[in-house]
């Protein structure tokens, strides 16, 4: 009898999680009417569960770094595969220049200003300021999924506007922020900044790891795509199932990390090149369940993470920064990213409204938590506690502000189109 009583919290936890996951089937029906994303109410479910003391295994972000890293790592790579599968290989370099403008212009400017704010306004030391800049630079591929491409693209029906640009940016920049995370880690272990071996840093952490991830991902995706094309049309539907997409996600990521390249880049590029077999005409394509299945897995993981993040907000994590940190977090979401994103879009043939929209939706989320956990696990940082509060506020502001506006903005451009 005592053993049964002791197991009650475990079963209660399972029941609550099952309830939370089941309501996701209904949430979009109502959130679409309210013109908000389903992420917003899920966040408040997490807060409610924590406040009424639901016996879930609430993580302590200060001590459960490994737990946080593994969970967020898995969610991000699944999301990167989803983004790659949706984009495919039917976009020209002229179209790819749009997201690369955000990478080459917006991202460096954004990081530079975050470093300045962190070091000179929030009084964080150099390595911690650089780590803050690196973890907040990428657009999150997970929580930004609501404003990204909805399905795999074909040359005769592809979307080339805001959704493609934001999807491609999120897929690319999650890997390209990694060199700066490693630079912050190296700096944290050095006596001075001048001690850093710059030749080794650029040759290994920048060139080898980026180029290696690109080549490996392209090879994995292209080879699998050729295997698909080798089979007859009636047999392709058995190969193009969701399980293989998940399997290739972990295979590509694991192999990339074994070879010391960037796994995030490898997974995204693998997803892109898997779709090389697709015909240009959507009507000639074999129907498959790769994207829907991966999206469902991603949604399952996101629901669980959002609930725990809502609980973490109530556990005191927001108290690790002061008013300056709160204002800085809000400025990053509402002012800095929109301005720098707009600057990057100036040469593009978009309307002024669309340029501002692309700049505005630099969603921050789960990827930032992964980078924070990874950096602290591998570095030797001091005075890093305030990062928990700043990063949490940035994600909170992003979830609420972008969650309340993204559907409305997409509807606006759809009607205008």
Automatic annotation (TrEMBL):
Q: What is this protein called?
A: Cation:proton antiporter
Where do the Cation/H+ exchanger transmembrane domain residues begin and end? 23-410
Q: Which residues cross the membrane?
A: 12-31, 38-58, 70-88, 100-122, 166-187, 199-225, 237-256, 300-320, 326-344, 356-378, 390-410
From the UniProt record, list the coiled-coil ranges. none
Q: Where is the signal peptide?
A: none
Subcellular location(s) of the protein: Cell membrane
Entries under InterPro entries matching the protein: Cation/H_exchanger_TM
- This protein's superkingdom? Bacteria
The protein's predominant localisation is membrane
Q: Does the keyword Phosphoprotein apply?
A: no
One short Pfam family name for this protein? Answer: Na_H_Exchanger
